[in-house]
C-alpha cells in the first residue's frame, strides 16, 4: 500500500501533494504521545534526511524560540487535564484521593506556575473532599498548598481566602479570625459577605456566641445580607455552648425573618445533639423536621452517624441508620462516611455503615473498605477479622486478595507477607508478580532478597522468568555465578529456572562473556524468544562476534530453536537483522563467518533481504558464506492496488462556467440549463431560476412535468399561491401521468390551508393515491405545517392526519400530533384537549402539546386534570423526566414553592441534559427570574452540576447588562463552595469589564470558539517543510 501511495502522489498536483503531506503530519500531531523510549530508539537508528540549509536555519531559530515554550504548554495541558479529572471525580463521588492530589501537586511543581481557578480547586480539595485523611493531615496539606500558591505567584482573590476558610472549618482547624482578616488586608484583598459568614461559623464552632455576634453586627453595619447560613451557624454555636433552647429559638427567629428552616438547619441541630449524645434532642429534631416536611437526605443522616461514632456514642448509630431511605447516591455517601470514620480510627462504626449498604451485585463488595484498612495501618488481626466476616457473609470473596494488593503497592512488606501466608492457608492462588514489591523493598539487603525467594518457595510459588531477571538478580551480587546458582538451588529452584534469567540479566548488563560462561558451566536449554533480542542488543554495543555467535548457537539447540515445519522461527535471521541497524557492512563481514563457523543458519528470505539491501557493499566471499548459511525459501507477497476517488457532480458555479463554454462553442446548452433550473429551485434562488426558465423558453425547450413541479415548489416556498396553482395546472396538462412527490404536495396543501382553503388542501391529499413503502423523514416537517394550518383555520385536522398515516407518508410523533391538541386549546376547550392528549398518548405512547396543556391547567388551577397529565407522562417518559418538566412548568407559571417540592422528591437525581434544555429555554425567552429560581431550588439536587447552572445565569445577566446581580450570584457560588469553570469566569469577567466594574478575580487567557484557552501560534511553524523537518528529527513538541 505504501508503494501504491507513492505512485499516486506523482499524479497529483503540487498543491495536492502539499495538502496530503500536511494531513499526514497533523495526524501525527493529533496522536497521543509515545513513550520516551520510542523517541530514543527513533533518534538512535533513524537514517539521515537531506534538508536545505535555509530550512535548517529556520528550524534552528524556531526551536530556539519555541522549544521551551512548547514543552511548557504541554505540561500546562497535562495539568489542566489532571485538574479536570479531579473536579469531575469530586462532582461524581464527593471525594478525591491523596494520590490524585499528590500527582497534581507534582505537576504543578514541574510546571512552576498556576492560574487562579487551578489554585482555587487545589485549596478546595484539602477539606472534606479528602475523605481518607484525618483532619490534622488535611490541614497540613492545606498549609503546604497555600504556601505553594504564594511561592508560584498564583493570583489570589477573595474566593481563594474564602475557600481556605471553608477548608479550615471542615477540618476544624484552630485559627484566629482577626489574624485571618489582617492577612487578607495585608494582601490587599477585600473580604466579602462569604468571608464574614465563615468567620461567624468559626466562632460558632468554638461555642463563642459573643464573637459571632460581633461579626454579625459588623455585617449589619456594612449592609451585608444575612441569610440562612448565618442562622445555621448560630444554631450550631448555641448547641456547642450547651444552650440547646437558644438553638431552637433561632428557628423562630428565622421564621420571623421569612426564612423557613431547611435540611441544613436541622443538620446543625442534629450534629449539636449528637456531639453530646442527647438522644431526646435527636428525636425531637427528627420529629420537627418531619412536621415541617423538611426532607433530610441520606448524607445528612450519615454525617450525624459519623459524629455519634466519633463522640463515642455507638449505641445510637442504629437510630440514624434505620432512617436511611437508600436513595440515589446512597452508595457514594456511605463510602465517603466510611472513609472518614476509618481516617478517625472508627473502624467498627465504619463497618456497620458498610453493612447498611444495599446488597451487592457482585462479589467485590466493600473493596474500598478493606483497601482503606490497609492504608490506615490497622493491625493484621483486625484486617483478617473483617476480611473473614465479609467472606462468610458472601459479600466479598476476594477481600484478602485486595488487602494483599494494597499492602504490596503501599510498600507494607511485613503486612503483605502475613496476608500472603493467610491466602495460602485459605487455598487462594498466589502469583509470582505478588513478590515483585517485596524484592524491591529489600534493596541493598541480599539476605532479605534471599529471604523473599525462600518465602516464595515455601508458599509453593514457582519463581517466574521476569521475577528473577528484573528484580532478584539486580538486587544481588552476581559476580560469582556459581555462588548465586548454588544458593538459589539450595532454596529449591532448578538450574534451568535460574540460568535462563541469569543469562538474560548478563546480556542486559552487556556482559556476553559472563553469559556464555554461565551456560557452559550449567548446560541448560535456553529460551531463544528471551535471549536472542537481548543478545543482538548486547552485540551492537560490545561488537564481540565470537562469544555472541557461540552463545547464539547454544540458544538455537534448545527445543524452541530446533523446531521444524511451519512452526519454526528464524531466530538467527532475526538476530542478524537486529544487528544490522548500525554499520551493517562492518557487522556482516564479522558476523557471517562466525555464524557459519558455529553452524548457525538463517532463512532464505532473510538472506535475500540482506543481499538486496547491502549486497553492493559486501565482498564476494561474504556473499558466498551468506548463501551457505541460508536454507529456507522466500515467501512472496502481493501488493494491492488502489483507485483514485471519483469526482463529485458539478455545482452551480461549475455549471455556469460550463454553460459559458458551451455557448462559446455553439453547442447544445439545454442539458446544462435544465440542471441549473433544478439547482436554483432547490436552493430557492427565485430570480436566477426565473432567468434560466426564460432562457429555456427562448431556446424553444419544452417544459416537462418535473420542471413545472420544481417551479411549483419554488413559488410555494415564497408563498405565491397563484403561480404555484398555475404550475400545478401545467403539470397536469403537460404530463397527466406525472405525480407530485410528497414534499411538494404537502407544502402546497399547507399553503392552501394557511390561505383559508382547508377543503382545497384536503382535496389535494385525497387526489394523491401514492402509498410509500416506508415513511420518509423529510415529510414530517411539511405534514406538521399542514396540520398546524388546518388547526388554526378550524379545518378537518383528523381527516388529514388519517390520510397521512394510512398512506404511510409520516409516522406518529409528538410534534405531528400537537396541532390536534392545539386546535382545542385555541378554543379554550380544556376537556377536549385533555381527551385528545390522552387518546394519542394511549395509542402511540406520545405526549403531544404536553407543555402548553400543562401550563394552561396550572394557570387555571385544575389539579386533578394536571395529575392525569402527569400520570400519562410518567408512563411514557418516566418519573424523573416528568418531574423536571413539571417543575419547569410551575416556574414559568410563577409557582416556585411547588416547583421546589417537586425537585425535593426522594431519590430524584439530576438529569443534566434536561436541565440544560430548561435553562436554554429560559435564557432564549429572557426569563431571568425563572432561571434564578431554578438555580436556587436545585441546590440540594443529587449529582447536579452547579457550575453549569450558574453559567446560564451569568449569560442571562450578560444579556441584560446586570452587574449587581451577577456579583451577587458570584458570592452565592462561594457560599455553596462551587468550583467555577474557566468558561464561567470568562463570561463573568467579560460582563464586568463591559460595564466598567472591577473584576473580583484574575481574568484568564481569552477562550476560543470552543470554550478552550487559545494556544500561542508560535508553537506551530509557519512553513510546512519546517514542520516536516522538526518531526523527522524528533525535536518537535506539541501541546
Describe this structure in words.
It is built from 56 helices and no strands. It is 67% helix and 0% strand. The protein is mostly helical and 1039 residues long. This is Putative bicoid mrna stability factor.
Number of helices: 56
The fraction of residues in strands falls at under 5%
The share of residues in helices is: 55-70%
Distance between the termini: 31 Å
* Tally of strands: 0
Mean pLDDT: 81
Class based on secondary structure composition and strand pairing? mainly alpha
What is the 3D form? flat
Index terms:
single chain, 1039 residues, mainly alpha, 56 helices, 67% helix, 0% strand
Compile the SSE list and pairings.
Blueprint: H1 2-9, H2 14-30, H3 36-45, H4 53-93, H5 98-111, H6 116-124, H7 135-151, H8 158-171, H9 177-186, H10 193-205, H11 209-221, H12 228-240, H13 244-256, H14 263-276, H15 279-291, H16 298-310, H17 317-321, H18 330-343, H19 347-355, H20 367-375, H21 380-392, H22 399-409, H23 413-425, H24 436-440, H25 446-458, H26 465-472, H27 481-490, H28 495-508, H29 512-521, H30 528-542, H31 545-555, H32 571-579, H33 584-597, H34 604-614, H35 620-629, H36 652-664, H37 670-682, H38 686-698, H39 705-717, H40 721-734, H41 742-754, H42 758-767, H43 779-792, H44 797-806, H45 814-826, H46 830-844, H47 850-859, H48 863-877, H49 879-892, H50 896-903, H51 912-924, H52 928-937, H53 946-960, H54 963-975, H55 982-994, H56 1024-1032
Amino acid at each position: 500500500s505504501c508503494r501504491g501511495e507513492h505512485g499516486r502522489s506523482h499524479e497529483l498536483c503540487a498543491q495536492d501533494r502539499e495538502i496530503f503531506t500536511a494531513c499526514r503530519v497533523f495526524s501525527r500531531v493529533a496522536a497521543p504521545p509515545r513513550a520516551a523510549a520510542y523517541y530514543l530508539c527513533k533518534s538512535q537508528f533513524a537514517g539521515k534526511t537531506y534538508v536545505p540549509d535555509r530550512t535548517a536555519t529556520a528550524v534552528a531559530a524556531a526551536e530556539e524560540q519555541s522549544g521551551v515554550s512548547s514543552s511548557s504548554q504541554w505540561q500546562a495541558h497535562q495539568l489542566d487535564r489532571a485538574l479536570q479529572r479531579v473536579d469531575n471525580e469530586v462532582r461524581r463521588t464527593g471525594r478525591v484521593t491523596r494520590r490524585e492530589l499528590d500527582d497534581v501537586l507534582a505537576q504543578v511543581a514541574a510546571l512552576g506556575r498556576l492560574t487562579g481557578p487551578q489554585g482555587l480547586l487545589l485549596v478546595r480539595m484539602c477539606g472534606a473532599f479528602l475523605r481518607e485523611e484525618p483532619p490534622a493531615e488535611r490541614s497540613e496539606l492545606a498549609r503546604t498548598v497555600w504556601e505553594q500558591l504564594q511561592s508560584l505567584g498564583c493570583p489570589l482573590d477573595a474566593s481563594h481566602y474564602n475557600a481556605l476558610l471553608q477548608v479550615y472549618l471542615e477540618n476544624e482547624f484552630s485559627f484566629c479570625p482577626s489574624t485571618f482578616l489582617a492577612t487578607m488586608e495585608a494582601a490587599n484583598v477585600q473580604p466579602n459577605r462569604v468571608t464574614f459568614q465563615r468567620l461567624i461559623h468559626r466562632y460558632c464552632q468554638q461555642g463563642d456566641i459573643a464573637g459571632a455576634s460581633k461579626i454579625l453586627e459588623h455585617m449589619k453595619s456594612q449592609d451585608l445580607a444575612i441569610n440562612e447560613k448565618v442562622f445555621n451557624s448560630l444554631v450550631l454555636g448555641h448547641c456547642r455552648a450547651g444552650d440547646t433552647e437558644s438553638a431552637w429559638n433561632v428557628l423562630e427567629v428565622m421564621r420571623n425573618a421569612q426564612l423557613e428552616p431547611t435540611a441544613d438547619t436541622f443538620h446543625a441541630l442534629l450534629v449539636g445533639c449528637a456531639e453530646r449524645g442527647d438522644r431526646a434532642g435527636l428525636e425531637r429534631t427528627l420529629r420537627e423536621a418531619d412536621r415541617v416536611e423538611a426532607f433530610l437526605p441520606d448524607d445528612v443522616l450519615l454525617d450525624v452517624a459519623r459524629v455519634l461514632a466519633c463522640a463515642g456514642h455507638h449505641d445510637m448509630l442504629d437510630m440514624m441508620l434505620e432512617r436511611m431511605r437508600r436513595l440515589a447516591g446512597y452508595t457514594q455517601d456511605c463510602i465517603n462516611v466510611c472513609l472518614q470514620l476509618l481516617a478517625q480510627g472508627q473502624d467498627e462504626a465504619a463497618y456497620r455503615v458498610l453493612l447498611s449498604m444495599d446488597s451487592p451485585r457482585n462479589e467485590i463488595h466493600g473493596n474500598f473498605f478493606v483497601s482503606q484498612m490497609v492504608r490506615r495501618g490497622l493491625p493484621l488481626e483486625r484486617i483478617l477479622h473483617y476480611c473473614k466476616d465479609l467472606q462468610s457473609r458472601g459479600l466479598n470473596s476476594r477481600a484478602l486478595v485486595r488487602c494483599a494488593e494494597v499492602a504490596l503497592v503501599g510498600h507494607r512488606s511485613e503486612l503483605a507477607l502475613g496476608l500472603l501466608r493467610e491466602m495460602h492457608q485459605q487455598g487462594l492462588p498466589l502469583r509470582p508478580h505478588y513478590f515483585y514489591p517485596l524484592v524491591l523493598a529489600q534493596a541493598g539487603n541480599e539476605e532479605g532478597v534471599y529471604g523473599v525467594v525462600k518465602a516464595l518457595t515455601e508458599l509453593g510459588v514457582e519463581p517466574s522468568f521476569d521475577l528473577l531477571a528484573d528484580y532478584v538478580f539486580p538486587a544481588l551480587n552476581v559476580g560469582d555465578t556459581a555462588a548465586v546458582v548454588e544458593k538459589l538451588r539450595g532454596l529449591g529452584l532448578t538450574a534451568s529456572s535460574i540460568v535462563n534469567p541469569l543469562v538474560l540479566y548478563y546480556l542486559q548488563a552487556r556482559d556476553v562473556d559472563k553469559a556464555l560462561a554461565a551456560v557452559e558451566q550449567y548446560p541448560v536449554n535456553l529460551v531463544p524468544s528471551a535471549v536472542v533480542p537481548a543478545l543482538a542488543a548486547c552485540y551492537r554495543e560490545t561488537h564481540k562476534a565470537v562469544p555472541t555467535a557461540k552463545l547464539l548457537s547454544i540458544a538455537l539447540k534448545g527445543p524452541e530453536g530446533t523446531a521444524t515445519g511451519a512452526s519454526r522461527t528464524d531466530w538467527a535471521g532475526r538476530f542478524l537483522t537486529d544487528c544490522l541497524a548500525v554499520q551493517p557492512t562492518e557487522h556482516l563481514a564479522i558476523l557471517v563467518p562466525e555464524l557459519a563457523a558455529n553452524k548457525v543458519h538463517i532463512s532464505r528470505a532473510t538472506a535475500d533481504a540482506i543481499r538486496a539491501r547491502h549486497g553492493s557493499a559486501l565482498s564476494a566471499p561474504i556473499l558466498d558464506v551468506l548463501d551457505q548459511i541460508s536454507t529456507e525459501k522466500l515467501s512472496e507477497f502481493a501488493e494491492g492496488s488502489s483507485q483514485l476517488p471519483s469526482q463529485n457532480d458539478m455545482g452551480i458555479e461549475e455549471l455556469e462556467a460550463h454553460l459559458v463554454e458551451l455557448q462559446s462553442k455553439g453547442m447544445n446548452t439545454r442539458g446544462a440549463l435544465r440542471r441549473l433550473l433544478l439547482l436554483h429551485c432547490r436552493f430557492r434562488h427565485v430570480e436566477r431560476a426565473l432567468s434560466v426558465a426564460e432562457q429555456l423558453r427562448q431556446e424553444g425547450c419544452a417544459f416537462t412535468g418535473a420542471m413545472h413541479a420544481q417551479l411549483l415548489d419554488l413559488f410555494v416556498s415564497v408563498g405565491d399561491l397563484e403561480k404555484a396553482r398555475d404550475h400545478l395546472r401545467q403539470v397536469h396538462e403537460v404530463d397527466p401521468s406525472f405525480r407530485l412527490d410528497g414534499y411538494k404536495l404537502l407544502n402546497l396543501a399547507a399553503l392552501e390551508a394557511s390561505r383559508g382553503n382547508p377543503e382545497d388542501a384536503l382535496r389535494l391529499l385525497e387526489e394523491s393515491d401514492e402509498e410509500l413503502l416506508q415513511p420518509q423523514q423529510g415529510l414530517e416537517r411539511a405534514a406538521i405545517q399542514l396540520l398546524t394550518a388546518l388547526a388554526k383555520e378550524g379545518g378537518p385536522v383528523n381527516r388529514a392526519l388519517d390520510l397521512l398515516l394510512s398512506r404511510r407518508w409520516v409516522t406518529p410523533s409528538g410534534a405531528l400530533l400537537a396541532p390536534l391538541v392545539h386546535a382545542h386549546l385555541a378554543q379554550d376547550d380544556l376537556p377536549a384537549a385533555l381527551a385528545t392528549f390522552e387518546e394519542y398518548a394511549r395509542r402511540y405512547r406520545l405526549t403531544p402539546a404536553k407543555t402548553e396543556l400543562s401550563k394552561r391547567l396550572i394557570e387555571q388551577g385544575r389539579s386533578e386534570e394536571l395529575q392525569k397529565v402527569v400520570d400519562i407522562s410518567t408512563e411514557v417518559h418516566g418519573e424523573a423526566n416528568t418531574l423536571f418538566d413539571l417543575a419547569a412548568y410551575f416556574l414559568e407559571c410563577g409557582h416556585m414553592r411547588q416547583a421546589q417540592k417537586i425537585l425535593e422528591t426522594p431519590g430524584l437525581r439530576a438529569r443534566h441534559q434536561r436541565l440544560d434544555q430548561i435553562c436554554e429555554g429560559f435564557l432564549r425567552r429572557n426569563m431571568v427570574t425563572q432561571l434564578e429560581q431554578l438555580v436556587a431550588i436545585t441546590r440540594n439536587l443529587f449529582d447536579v452540576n452547579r457550575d453549569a447552572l450558574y453559567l446560564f445565569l451569568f449569560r442571562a445577566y450578560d444579556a441584560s447588562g446586570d452587574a449587581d446581580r451577577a456579583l451577587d450570584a458570584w458570592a452565592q457560588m462561594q457560599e455553596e463552595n462551587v468550583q467555577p469553570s474557566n468558561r464561567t469566569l470568562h463570561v463573568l469577567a467579560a460582563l464586568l469589564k463591559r460595564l466598567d466594574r472591577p473584576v473580583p478575580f484574575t481574568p484568564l487567557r481569552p477562550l476560543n470558539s470552543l470554550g478552550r484557552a487559545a494556544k500561542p501560534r508560535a508553537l506551530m511553524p509557519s512553513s510546512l517543510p519546517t514542520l516536516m523537518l522538526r518531526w523527522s528529527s524528533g525535536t518537535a513538541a506539541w501541546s
